[in-house]
Amino acid sequence: MTLMPVTLLERRRIEAEFIKSLLETMAATVGREQAVAWLGEAIRTMAERAGAAFAGQRKREQADLIAYADILPIWQENDALRLEIEDAGADHLAFNVVTCRYADMYRELGLADLGALLSCNRDAAFCAGFNPAIILTRTQTIMEGADHCDFRYVLKDMPPPERSDEEPA
User: Fold this and answer.
1) Angle between helical axes of 32-56 and 8-30 (0-180°, round to 10)
2) How many domains does the chain fold into?
3) Which letter does DSSP use for residue 34 in this model?
4) Is-annotated flag, keyword Hydrolase (predicted)?
């Protein structure tokens, strides 16, 4: 049997359905505020690891914003996001998200209040995992009611971390 690859949007839907049940269970024990805090931390940790793995797949490239932009088509699969690129280079990347099906999906699942935690919360952590010298500035999101998300990335003036094939000690 051949398995069909799952788009990132569908993966987030599967995760959200599980997280909704998990959050209800955790909240009954430790309270909603603590449960949400733990979920946020877990999601940021997962995103940072995903960013590092993505960077590791590009060992022969610089961990700059041109290499980072390789993730954009994955984020856009199945029309999940519609982007308008404003500017791009090795040390900067600016785009707006003008359509976000992730936000639509969280609303459909009754998780609109958690959409930013489950999705937008990942973005800066993914950057840190990919290259800690990349800084993301975002002042608004569709998830939080704006008409677009403004992503502005800058590569700080410092060399990216060295990558090796060795296992960490």
Assistant:
1) 150
2) 1
3) H
4) yes
Strands 134-137 and 149-155: antiparallel
* Whole-number CA gyration radius for the chain: 17
> What domain range is 102 assigned to?
8-155
pLDDT digits (tens, 9 = 90+) for 134-143: 999 999 999 9
pLDDT, position 57 = 87
State the pTM of this model: 0.84
* CA pair distance 142, 71, nearest whole angstrom: 20
- In tens, the pLDDT along 114-128 reads 999 999 999 999 999
Q: Is residue 3 part of a domain?
A: no
Look at residue 63 and tell me if it is in a domain.
yes
As beta bridge partners, residue 89 has 92
Residue 163 has pLDDT above 70, yes or no: no
Q: Which helix (H) or strand (E) holds 55?
A: helix 32-56
